[in-house]
Amino acid sequence: MTNAPDFNLRDALDATRGWDDDTIELDDELLADQDDFESGYADDTAYDDEADPEELTLGAQELAERHALRRVASLRTELEDITEVEYRQLRLEKVVLVGVWTEGSVTDAENSMAELALLAETAGSEVLEAVFQRRQKPDPATYIGRGKVDAIREIVQATGADTVICDGELAPSQLRNLEDRLKVKVVDRTALILDIFAQHAKSKEGQAQVELAQLQYMKQRLRGWGGNLSRQAGGRAAGGEGIGGRGPGETKIETDRRRINTRIAKLRRELKEMRGTREVKRQSRRRNHVPSVAIAGYTNAGKSSLLNRLTDAGVLVENALFATLDPTTRRTTTSDGRVYTMSDTVGFVRHLPHDLVEAFRSTLEEVADADLLLHVVDGSHPDPEGQIAAVRQVLAEIGATKVPEIIVINKADAADPLVISRLRAREPHSVVVSAKTGEGIEEALRTIESELPRPQVEFDVLLPYERGDLVNRIHQEAEIGSMEHTGDGTLVVGRANADLAGELAAYAR
């Protein structure tokens, strides 16, 4: 027996009287502490009624959506419960990185492995261990050699990793041999980059381009699992097809390969139509003689940040590799009123998969058809020269080597001044900026304006006031030397393209 007090229901109900009243008296000490109270769960401004989601830029909305928590139902197991939330950053794959160093210095090999680690983290994994070895060439059977496979298997077992990522493109036989011996999933650099592209592609064209590259990569790497994918079905074994169904049949792998080829053909037709739409837009700009500037460079060099700083585009900005894939074009003007366009393109990387370059060729043609190229370089990167070489290699593949180029050394606020001096000595036609702080942006704009193609034909005309349309075109397409409003009309002297100069010839003085 316990010495608990006697319970009286009437007294208990009387004690709760007044709980539902709107006004509740609080202790003075509690009210005094309210000013110092801070929520530990979320920023109070996130729930502010004045914060209108429509006021955010499109890039900010995409970034918020990318980092939002997603609820996943019916995923309860006996060992763990993840029914609350699920996001790739909360349940990361545990990976071991493996590389083969065939050329260059040790620093080059370490930079390549560091970049592979960043790619793996962007794809949604946790890097547990990274190893690389010196070889004249990768082993044709296992990429790293039989002895190193046993060592890596011990590392996988000791760390509890579930994936091994190789810093190179593996042949189908190498992929199969490694998975058979390591007993975990093996992914090469190409598949890793394709996975990142699949996560970040937003537009219909971008998703189709990524899917095309994935299918081309997958087609050569189909493999069977036991008899299910290798059993041939013909005659009654094919489900009693009867007449027309007899014969040796085809294997499951052959069926999958045929379906992949059908899907690839369909995607190519769709991309061809989208390419036509993009070509119409280019022809419209050419017809109106609007110069175009393309921003290209290594991934995460700050291309989107630079576009936002130069044009107030408001595109997505994130400190991650391949954060933005879909090209963005913005219309802007020079200080003297000339109109031109500025386009942000997909970032490049060392050993960019060839299938990816082919799939994104219609997008990369924005660079090849541009009048001026802004080659953005990360000045704070350990190897900016290597980034420049990798980007120029891809530019050569798409036929953009003849486009005038300006090297834009970005992230000046975080870069070593000695590195910037070295880059400027190597690349004389360059500017130093910081898209984050705005340093050097004015100099970059002046350099762009000086490098834009200028009209070739000089004109000196007296336009009547009823031809305001020609005056407007002069402001948009021509370069004005002087303009004066007289009693007889508008006196304009300047330079224009051949088409506009032909129309102005009727009013020449």
Question: What does it look like?
Answer:
This protein is an alpha/beta fold and 509 residues long. Helix content is 40%, strand content 16%. The strands form 3 sheets. Strands 6-7-5-8-9-10 form a 6-stranded mixed sheet, with helices on both faces. Strand 3, helix 6 and strand 4 form a beta-alpha-beta unit. The radius of gyration is 31 Å and the shape is globular. It starts with 8 loop residues before the first helix and ends in a 5-residue tail after the last helix.
Q: Key terms for this structure?
A:
509 residues; alpha/beta; six-stranded mixed beta sheet; four-stranded parallel beta sheet; 17 helices; 13 strands
* Number of helical stretches of at least 4 residues: 17
Distance between the termini: 117 Å
| Mean pLDDT over the residues | 78
Percent range of helical residues: 40-55%
Largest sheet: 6 strands, mixed
Task: Count all strands and give the number.
Answer: 13
Structural class call reads: alpha/beta
How would you sum up the global shape? Answer: globular
| pLDDT < 50 stretches | 37-51, 71-90
Order of helices and strands, N to C? HHHEHEHEHEHHHEHEEHHEHEHEHEHEEH
